[in-house]
Amino acid sequence: MINQERIKNLLLELVQIDSHSRKERDVAERIKKYCEEMGAQVEIDDAGSAVGGNSGNVIARFPGTIPGADSIMMSAHMDTVVPGEGVKPIIEGDIIRTDGTTVLGGDDKSGCAVVIEVIRCLQEQNIPHAPVEAIFSICEEVGLLGAKNVDVSKLKAKYGIVFDSDDPGFLFTKGPSSNHMEFKIHGLESHAGVAPEDGISAIKIAAEGLAAMTLGRIDEETTANIGLIQGGMATNIIPNLVVLQGEARSRSEQKLEAQTQHMKKCLEDAAAKYEVTVEGKITKASVEAHVERDYSSMDVPDSSHVVQLVIKAAARMGLDVKTMASGGGCDANVFNRKGIECANLGTGMRAIHTVKEWLDVKDMYTSAEMTLEIMKLNGELATS
After folding, report:
1. How does DSSP assign 32-100, residue by residue?
2. Contact, 56 vs 138, CB < 8 A?
């Protein structure tokens, strides 16, 4: 059994430590301290230097009690989205919510709390278990940068669990690939009142291109969005530059490529209609496209060792866990690509990335109890 009061208090403690992406140092040091007190070999890697942050990933290695057992990984991320500084959690029965001015940070400090509590229980209750490699990552919220910079050659685990979703009754085993896009639309500046015919409005081109785009839910596997628009200098100047930033996601690489090209073509087609001649010089509108892979898809089969561990452990508790596909990415996408087979288990967080975020501690307790059972079962299988 887990200690419900202890894990709840740990969550409350962690969410009140500011840790925006690239500013995780304080919470990293706190987690490092707790892991060292439990006898782990702990390092903070150099991922912070690689991403321009003040802390790296916390990697804690806990020895097992079963000779020859394979290591298992548990992972959660330490950073939060904005606004996440000065969090004042409000407790209403089993619900912990924000005061409405910040996010709560249950995404993903509830995951951090689950990992720490489970390891404490393994040790206190003398439960036979495999070695544990716990990874508390940075910068998950800004492109999974912490996980991308984990040196997996230093890890022994080949499977594990990431704790970074909502309902513990669902295990996310499939997730999309994601492309980040930046489009620079080049027009020609001119005085809006004196010589508008001598200019090309980059804003008008952007508007026409966006109007032609299919965005939002494309199909059950694919989504797309333009989320940032920047451009223009003054109301009396024809704007010569607009920058759009967006994304496309899909569990199908073919659909992702098709959607990415569709968005690019819509803007290029809009720009192709515009050119002006000023003092004998021809200027044509143009689009400069930059596409970067944010992360690649994950697809863990139901027959995999880690999925079966979760399902069977849950069944021993009388719980029915269903595997599902997610529309978002998480560190599990990266770890799977790096050769560590893992799935994403929920911890009770809700309304994440909003100032209305809340968490049901009963779900967090369930997640922790289930994980403790997973570790027990994993240990039994290692000795069978």
Report:
1. HHHHHHTT-EEEE-THHHHHT-S---EEEEE--SSTTPPPEEEEEE--BPSS-SS---EEETTEEE--S
2. yes
Q: Is-catalytic flag, 5?
A: no
Helices 106-124 & 25-37 angle (0-180, nearest 10): 10
User: Which of these is catalytic: 24, 45, 79, 107?
Assistant: 79
Active-site entry in 45, 107, 108, 140: 140
Other beta carbons within 10 Å of 234: 7
Q: Which residues pair with 360 in a beta bridge?
A: 95
Q: What pLDDT, on the 0 to 100 scale, is given for residue 384?
A: 84
Radius of gyration of the chain (CA): 24
Respond yes or no: is residue 140 known to be catalytic. Answer: yes
The string of DSSP codes covering 274-292 is -EEEETTEEEE-EEEEEEE
Domains of the chain: 4-175+297-383 (3.40.630.10), 177-294 (3.30.70.360)
Can you give the pLDDT at residue 81?
A: 97
Q: Is the pTM of this model over 0.85?
A: yes
